[in-house]
Amino acid sequence: MGVRRTSVDVNVDILESALNGANKTRIVYRSNLNFAIVRNYLDNLIKSGLLIIGEDGLYVTTNKGAKFIKDYQNLMKPFNFS
Fold first, then answer.
1. 18-75, pLDDT tens digit by residue?
2. Quick one: which H or E segment has residue 20?
């Protein structure tokens, strides 16, 4: 059995999935979630200014979201045992 992800891990997975724009289905599959769960995460990321819905209807990670990803990766570097 694998290690459970924290909500921060899930948020980062979603933001990474939407870096170049992604529809909800792509985010669900890339983030290994389901549609019911991803809805709450997307709403919270949008409210936080980390994600937007573009004119084409795709979810897109904002500059603030990209900085969040980078900060998270830098924070987790010392714990990467691979």
1. 999 999 999 999 999 999 999 999 999 999 999 999 999 999 999 999 999 999 999 9
2. none
In the chain, what are the domains?
7-77 (1.10.10.10)
C-beta neighbour count of 20 within 10 angstroms: 9
Task: Locate the DSSP E strands across the chain.
Answer: 51-53, 59-61
Among left, alpha and beta (phi > 0; psi -120 to 50; other), residue 53 is beta
- Which token pair is 33? 């979630």
Q: Give phi and psi for 52, each to the nearest 5.
A: -130, 165
3-state DSSP assignment of residue 42: helix
Q: How far apart are CA 63 and CA 45, in angstroms?
A: 13
